[in-house]
Amino acid sequence: MGTNPSEKLKKQKESRILALESRMTALMFWNDASGEYTGEVDTKLPARKFPSTDMVHYFHPIAWVRQMKLMYYKRDIDLREKGKWQTQFDVIFGNKAVQNKACWKACQVVLSNYNVNGGHLINGKALYQIGIEKNNSLEIDNNNAKLAIKYLDEQLELGKPIIVGVDHTYKYKGGFNNDKSTDHFVIIIGRGSDETGDFYRFYEVGTSYKNKGMSDENKLYVKMNSVLKGKPVYNAKHEYTVIQIRKNN
Question: Are 131 and 243 in contact (CB under 8 A)?
């Protein structure tokens, strides 16, 4: 008589279970490892022991990642404060025509609100010129982009906002400006990270609405080439590229 198929399957199952138990047993080490360490040790140190209990403690994966970020990554900084933001559309700058071009002046007011002096050119040049408009695109200096991020971090860690120039439209308003790059000025006011990546927060002075000027969503994300890009809440049609860093004194 032939072997009963069900009996054959049962034996195969039992054989595989035994093989699995054997492999699992070979991997078990806790009973052997617990107790006094018997290997070679430094005689100046007490004998090492593993816990004799079978209860093992571990970090929750998310908590572990959070702790590693605190230890090895940049800490979040947010220098935003009520009363320190400024819009360029303010009568202190003059009539409407003047206000339309007053972004740098508004950024200067923000710096003064933080008791910071800066934002000027040095011998006619920015501290870091990250790129210029040329041949229908932005030509980026990657080395300056990296140096710019280092400078932003240094200033933020000192509690100082920084004026930066951004580009959003090639030949904005029909032509090149003096530096062939900057269409607008904003203030870097913090840094952080989210599910999209690392970013720098900014004050948008180009809106009359404080909630949009100080919005949580005004973020400039760090791209692979170290260039910062992001959209202001008040006008999602514009994508800003940080193209110029002005020096704090």
Answer: yes
